[in-house]
Amino acid sequence: MKAQYTRSQTKIIRVLKSLNDAISAQDLYIELKNRDHPLGLATVYRGLEALKAQGIVKSRTLSSGEALYSLVSHDQHYINCVSCGQSFAINECPIQNLEERLEKTYNFQVYYHTLEFFGRCHQCHAKSVP
Ligand SMILES: [Zn+2]
Ligand SMILES: [Zn+2]
Q1: Are residues 65 and 94 in the same domain?
Q2: How far apart are the CA of 129 and the centre of ligand 2, in A?
Q3: 127 CA to middle of ligand 1, Å?
């Protein structure tokens, strides 16, 4: 089954593919402008939501409330510091087996999953120790 994308969705996918990290809608809007493929901010949001509904794009929400978007094929998890807002990528996914099990048990096609850890990073921890 081949998905049909609108022009703006294709542009969004192209930028997301070229990035190694998740990006906010605002930054994606700037990135598109820098690459001479300007889209309106509302179009960027609409495109991202449409791609999310198709299981192409996933989002994760930072402790600041800002949403970051990336392609679903990019299975990456983070530990997030609630004090300074930094995110650190972790190089493992412990729930890939679970995903397969859910697909079988519930006959459900899993597009993606999110898994986030929140806490305090070592820098902020060191600062708080008298
Ligand atoms: Zn921190
Ligand atoms: Zn994962």
Answers
A1: no
A2: 33
A3: 9
